[in-house]
Input
Amino acid sequence: MKTYLVTGGAGFIGSNFILYMLGKYDDISIINVDKLTYAGNLENLKSVEQNPRYRFVQADICDKDAISAIFAENEIDYVVNFAAESHVDRSIRDPEIFVKTNVLGTVNLLNCAKVAWETGDDCYRDGVKYLQVSTDEVYGSLGKEGYFMETTPLDPHSPYSASKASADLFVKAYADTYRFPVNITRCSNNYGPYQFPEKLIPLIMNNTLQHKELPVYGDGMQIRDWLYVEDHCKAIDMVIRDGVAGEVYNVGGHNERTNLFIVKTIIAYIKEHVDSEVGEHMIRHVTDRKGHDRRYGIDPQKIKDALGWYPETPFEIGIQKTLKWYLDNADWIKNVTSGDYQKYYEKMYSGK
Ligand code: NAD
Ligand code: TYD
Output
């Protein structure tokens, strides 16, 4: 029985990962540590709440006492660090919390794991591993040609990506200095169930259904490389199990789309299946994001060759599954868009 310490497991990708792993394996247990910020939602994990192999602990990854206590009380085999402030627009308005959680929180986790796993000088219990869930945004922005490879120099532009790149460097420093067993995964943009509607796909879906304007930053021709969240979960599972310690793995499915294409796809689906009154007239080009990265594109060859990973869900299927999930879970979206979300939305979009 392997025990995973999953941080940020009440967020979008973390909760998908917990559901994926508990569904796939009978011989693992998961402790989910989450601070429950605006982005954390235990509703996502209702179906496993009573599972004896799952436990939730509310804690901040920056809290040394709380995190050390979890290591002291449990024999943790793997740490999977999803916990982060994850939204670029919020990082532009308020960078400090990104440094606290994403950088200092990561260092605290690394340190607590190191202390708990050390068996001698730079020696650790057999089979343990720390996996840092990073992002392709640490590589910066591409021109029309080329892809991000694991060897691409880090060149983050936003406070969010700068904080993720800093965290990656600390993870690397732990591997280089203490021979600490780590992996870093750098994935492209995810989409799927339980994504908070501050991100492009759920925001546009929700606004379309609500007959609200659809804010497209600048010309809408920026490109993101979209991956269905379950394919990311599968990659993380494979890297924990078979990734070579110290290695970085890029994760992406060669699925580059412009933002305008994404928005028009969502409108077309909703128009056909739900509400014939919606249309492209709802699109509103608004002031561009500061420092907006133009194009992301991942070269996933390393994880394909080394671990046999491949993306299983084509975009056309994944986007339909996602749209259907949001339609079938209207209460979820209603709950997360009540209260503070309205304030966020007005502050964010009123000036655009
Ligand atoms: P999210 O914002 O949906 O979830 C983040 C979770 O972390 C929330 O549950 C939140 O409560 C928790 N959290 C925040 N601060 C915390 C703290 N100090 N201590 C404990 N918990 C805390 O984010 P997401 O989209 O699920 O992303 C998860 C991870 O994957 C992040 O590290 C992000 O950088 C990375 N990533 C995301 C994407 C994407 O497209 N969303 C792509 C590649 C990598
Ligand atoms: P987002 O989902 O925030 O992910 P990231 O910035 O981490 O890639 O945004 C995806 C793309 O969509 C990005 O180019 C910004 C753009 N975007 C809009 O045009 N309008 C919006 O309202 C949002 C939230 C994003």
